[in-house]
Design goal:
- The complex is a heterodimer of chains A (247) and B (411).
- Chain A contains 9 helices and 2 strands.
- Chain A has a two-stranded antiparallel ribbon.
- Chain B is α+β, with helices and mostly antiparallel strands.
- Chain B has 6 helices and 23 strands.
- In chain B, the strands form 6 sheets. Chain B has a 5-stranded antiparallel sheet.
- Chain B is elongated, with a radius of gyration of 31 Å.
- The termini of chain B are far apart.
- At the A-B interface, α1, α3, α4, α5 and α7 of A face α1, β4, β5, α3 and α4 of B.
- The complex binds copper (II) ion.
- The site of copper (II) ion has 5 residues of chain B, from β9.
Chain lengths: 247, 411
Amino acid sequence: MGVVRSAITTAEQQHRVYKAFDWIVIPIVVLVIIGAFHIHFMLTAGDWDFWIDWKDRRWWVTITPITLIFFPAALHYLFWQHFRLPFGATLCCAGLLAGEWVSRVVNFVGWAYYPLNMVVPAEIIPMALVLDSVLLISRSFLVTGVIGSMIWGLIFYPANWAIIAPYHVPVEYNGNMMSIADLMGYSYVRTGTPEYIRIIEEGTLRTFGESVVPVSAFFAGFISVFAYFIWVGIGKALAKTIWVKKL
Amino acid sequence: MLNLKKTIAILVAAISIVVAVYAAPVMAHGEKSQAAYLRMRTLLWYDVEVSTTKLMVNDELVMTGKFYWFYDWPANIAKPEVAFLNIGIPGPVFVRKASYINGVSGVNSTRFDIGSTYEFKVVLKARRAARIHMHALMNVKKAGPLIGPGRWVEVTGDMADFSNEVTTLTGETIDLETYGLQNSIRWHVFWGVVAAAWLLYWLFQGPILIPRYKKVKLLGENADDMITSTQRTIGLVLLIGTVVVVTWSYYDTQAKYPITIPLQSGRTNIPPLPDTTLGVRAEVVDARYRVSGRALEFSVNVTNNTNSPIRLGEFTSANIRWMNPDVSTAEPADSHDPVATNGLKYEGGIVYPGETKLLKVTCTDAAWETHRLAKVVYDPDSRFGGLLFFFDNENKRSIVAIGGPLVPVFI
Ligand SMILES: [Cu+2]
């Protein structure tokens, strides 16, 4: 008889251990990702995502996809390269949204009493599903980066229009025409966020003034393509040095 | 076993980090925290009143007053090229129904002239029960909030009774408290379910981390073979399905809301009020702050170009009022309203029409210390400012801004 015997003797036991590993590691990874991604996103796109009267046709549409693609790209590398699992984007975007909902309900409504409809986060799941499914179909970072990231930027606004359109209905208020979103921003007093602080579309003398959204969305998609490759690279560097080797 | 303990420890740490990130922000208002010279030489508020201090949910409160943009604006502070009249309250205890500056709606941001006076009116509707110290407030772009006088206000009643109805230009009457919320939640739930299904599909492919990692390393170049054709088909269905649902929802929404406008970001221009001095001029000759006596002493050369004799009744600066009860009286509105009811004394008496006279004024009160105004002598710019209120026989006021270097007297 050997002196040292592994506790794992059967395939079934091994299966159980691997399963237990999944159930312990995956929640930790998800929590850490939610925390880190949330901090990153609030620091970059914070107010645009917080308030209904910041969700405009130019800045919000441009900034959200570009700043948002960092984590999905890094996780694509980690989960695809080492596990052939195509859910990195959906995992972190769904985690981020769950965290955002907690923050909106607890802080913005529970603590500061803003109405929940004023602080609903942007819808980002459809973009994540596209990025993941393109990776699965193409099995290529190159194709995902070029085609997936482009669609990622393009569908952000259409995917959110169903949520924000009701707030763009016009109202007459004290002799001004405002959108309902503007009116909510005015009604629900924000002492530290005055009207002028909003970074939103101001209109220009340029032509194509009508097609602000498509221009912004294409630009967002275009930059997202580059951002995707940069962050796949960073994911590569991080995955190599930190924890994958320890498995 | 050791590893399990470690795992739990990491899990607890991760959860605490997440909780800490979500911890609520602290609400505070810094009425006394700004440097004294800034409070004395930026925006000078006066005549600020609230229509009531005790009200029920759904009741209205009107705040009125005037503000003067000090002529000797500190060079390091941004001028009010873009500014917004606001209210300092901890979250929406009130909703703002209307605000006016010189009668013009204050919905948009605006610019103001240095050296000019404006009057304002803000109509608020009580939304939830709370006892708060509310302030008039001006946000100035690149400068920050300029805080006006505060009042304690108590709202009672139930927030559940509150409604905030408006009628849109498309003829629909809506309650801003809940408008569109169900629709937003429905979409978030729908996409959330799809995301969960996608993640669970992969999670239930058996144990995924260790076996798949080993297999990827084993297959090397051919690791892509781990993806079955069924899985690729599922991917294709997901891609097409997502794009179709997004496209459909976009056009469906366009059909439901054919009339929409972009967010409005216009600016207004508001002309100032006419000159408030009514022809009275005042120049500070010298000014001292007596540290031990908590008193500002200054001599001021006053020229009366009006048709009636005038007397000095009040000096105000940084939301503090020093009254000369022989001429004008005022009482503190509440426990936190700094009014020195007998704080102003002066030598020189009446200034007659056409006369120029040197007045020696003393403004004494503990507020110099309690409101941290005495710190002006330790500021990087030790100049003071404020408004003098002269009264004629019919109590008509001439309001004149004064200011200049301030020399401390320590002994
Ligand atoms: Cu206060």
